Amino acid sequence: MLTLYYMLFKERLKMFSENCNALNYNIMNAELDHSDFFKDTYLQVSNSNNKFTRNVLFFVFWTPVIYCVPTPIIDLCNGEYRRHHPLTISYPYDDHSPGIYEITFFLQMLGILYGDMKKFANDCFFLTVFRIHTVYLKYLSASMRSLGKEFGKYDDAVVKRKLITWLKLHDNLVRNVSELISLYAPVICIYYANLICMVVFGIFTQIKANKLASEIYNTPWYEVNKTNKDIIRLIQRMANRPVDITAYRAPTLRLNKESFLAFITSTITAVVAFSKMSEIHQ
């Protein structure tokens, strides 16, 4: 889906990249101060992004390999080589026969690897452009502070010319941010929809677990003897334990109603912020 999206909007992406290059050129050739600060900060962000990309790329590449390779190795150790695939998929051919199994195995691994690499490339590009625009904002803030110190000290015509230059740079930046938001709004919606589905499924599982305790209580437990009542009491106590779907027992990664509401609140806040930025541009 991301590949199709980039193919459809490749001209807009190209124009966005050209606008960023033009903004860099205008900043470096503007008569405002802190052009060296912008250059150093820009290079620092670029270097940190390069290091981040190289380090994460290593894990992105090896994670599908580590996930897929143990499957045939375990089958081989158990004397059942070619019995399982990393992904259980029904094929219209015998995917367990010699040669065909190996081809199917590598196709599955390459499919997982391609999807991970594609998403990783999209995330890196998304992170890079937003960090670069943060550098633009830092530069405009620093240059405005320096420009404010010149009020009343220099000729009004010089100050006016610098103010107009700063205003043009700011307008170009706002246009870039607006275009960036417009380009990535569908991608953000896809990511959010995926996350919402995960949270909702987690909530449904939690609700089913809570319903289990009610079903146990609704049984005619009062008609059994004391020994069975003790067993039912133990079952009831175990069923009343909350079922939390979480990652590494981290409270912030727990899929429940509270995290769902917090996520919806954050989403609405982001939408409102993006809308305000678009209104400022207009």
UniProtKB/TrEMBL annotation:
Tagged with keyword Transmembrane: yes
InterPro entries per record: 7tm6_olfct_rcpt (IPR004117)
Source domain of life: Eukaryota
GO cellular component labels: plasma membrane
GO BP of this protein: signal transduction
Database matches in Pfam families: 7tm_6
The UniProt record lists the keyword Transmembrane: yes
UniProt KW keywords: Cell membrane, Membrane, Olfaction, Receptor, Sensory transduction, Transducer, Transmembrane, Transmembrane helix
Location(s) in or outside the cell: Cell membrane
Species in which this protein is naturally found: Nezara viridula (Southern green stink bug)
Ranges annotated as spanning the membrane: 56-74, 99-117, 183-204
Single GO term (MF): olfactory receptor activity
Membrane topology label: Multi-pass membrane protein
Record PANTHER family: ODORANT RECEPTOR, ODORANT RECEPTOR 19A-RELATED
Name of this protein: Odorant receptor
